[in-house]
Amino acid sequence: MQDLMPPWKKFEDLVKKILEAQLFDIQVNPLRGDNGFDFTGTLAHESWAIEVKYYRTARVRPSLIESAAARVISNGLSQRASKAMLIVSSLLTPEIRVALESKYSILFVDRVDLRSWATVKPSLIDELDALLELDPNYSNDNHFTSISFDSVKRLERNSALSVDNEGTALCEKLATIKKGKSHWAKYETFCTEALHYLFPNDLSGWHKQMSVDGGISRYDFVCRAGTATEFWKFLVENLNSRYVVFEFKNYSEKIKQGQVLTTEKYLLERALRKVAIIFTRSGADKNAVKMMQGAMREHGKLILPLDDELVRKMLLMKENGNDPTDLLFEITDNFLLSLPR
Prior knowledge:
GO terms for molecular function: endonuclease activity. InterPro entries: Restrct_endonuc-II-like (IPR011335), Restrct_endonuc_IV_Mrr (IPR007560), tRNA_endonuc-like_dom_sf (IPR011856). The chain is of the alpha/beta class and 341 residues long. The strands form 2 sheets. Strands 6, 7, 8, 9, 10 and 11 form a 6-stranded mixed sheet that branches. Strands 1-2-3-4-5 form a 5-stranded mixed sheet. Strand 2 and strand 3 form a beta hairpin. Helix 6 runs antiparallel to helix 7, helix 6 packs antiparallel against helix 11 and helix 9 packs parallel to helix 10. The two termini are 27 Å apart.
């Protein structure tokens, strides 16, 4: 059912319809992900590599846009596309757009451009406004200028082009770390490196705490959360948690109810510290999940477990120019929507 589609998929489908309204012949690219791009477009006998990025945050970090741009150029060249286009759901300020266009030989398209293109079929504007939750009085005249597809530069090899591979390297490092007490130090080092890579501008402070349970259960950091992206802003403004606890548990099995109870004791309302994120190799068992639900339902404390699979997914999201906090938002959203009485 359409309503069950995740927002990023709805956005991709809508972008496809808007491009087709602009007379592009659009095909879903069979090589998507790390080595591909979302759509192959044809216009005036020229082939386009088209990548679509959905972000929950209206003004996404430029570094993510750059990562996505570098990858669509590299993948577009490998598949012999003539030109390339990066379409984002966020807003590109005139300054950022100029900086990006001077560095990358592709067309950058943001929500303002999409809304202007959608005017050829007004029903598409309604869909876009609803999906991006835009105000009906939203104005698209703040920086839009008419784009000529003919004037877009052709793709060319640039020796200075740098594709981010740090996420893959960290995934490979995680795979080498054995589970269990004797390897907790390596796991702590990995988790610290992963957090700094994933959220370099979102977290600050990094106040280190002591270890408990002989080192295998660690209350490692308390960080101060910023409000530049939607997830951290939600924690600060809606959950009244200016600070976030991070724990790294290198258990061989799923964490249990007792470990969650220990974590909950670290969360203090008066200290504006009501959120904990637990890195745990194998996730949480059903009793631990029930304890997390109870902590949220009874005390407003949010505890999120991140297993190896979710951590790898976030690392590759960041590498590909997606915002890893969007996955955290999705996990939180699903947790709160399914919270039992």
